[in-house]
User: What shape does this take?
Amino acid sequence: MATASYSPSVSVAASPFVGSRPSTSTAMLRYDLLAATPVIAEPFEYFMIPQFIRAEHLDAIQRDFPAIKEGGSFPLASLQFGPAFRQLTDELVGEPLRAALAKKFDMDLSDRPATLTVRGRTRMKDGQIHTDSVTKLITVLVYLNRDWSNTGGRLRLLRSATNLEDVIAEVPPTEGSMVAFRCRPNAWHGHHPHDGPRRSMQLNYVTSASASRWSSIRHGVSAMLKSFRG
Assistant: This one.
């Protein structure tokens, strides 16, 4: 079967865009591409958009991205960042994107909490094949790396729990790219090792408020321990 590819958790406060879609003159996200991109249904539902963030916003987002020197995922509450990055986080957890994803995956997300975490680098131990936890319904990954010539660090959606070469789709973590998928029991994914900077954001819709709180606690404690080590 052919491989698809392209080249180039803290609960989050309500977005200022809640209740209405941002105008195309102010929105960072390409809602038009989201609407036009089909969902691939097998072996689990997913889709990819190479340029999900409008190009004119990328320099400001890079400037305002939080300084992250450690590996692992960080909740927003543990980070400092500028206004352009704040706008991006607001759009990612906003109602327009929630509604679009609900329609895309034919799900009711109206009462499902959103969590958002940020990564600034990966370690050699990261990227092992896994599925996301049973409390997660949808995973959305957004990448913010200027370019990506490395062989490692390219997310692969997989047919197998054991074979990183059994690839459905490969997603280079280039600037503005996005991949979204349903968190099915067979939604295997991972990447070859990479040690170094790799900017990404992970949005999840989770099953309940308790799942959201547990994500907040887990990532918050992890961020605190990393700061102590630093």
Observations:
- The first helix runs from residue 31 to 36.
- The first strand starts at residue 4 and ends at 5.
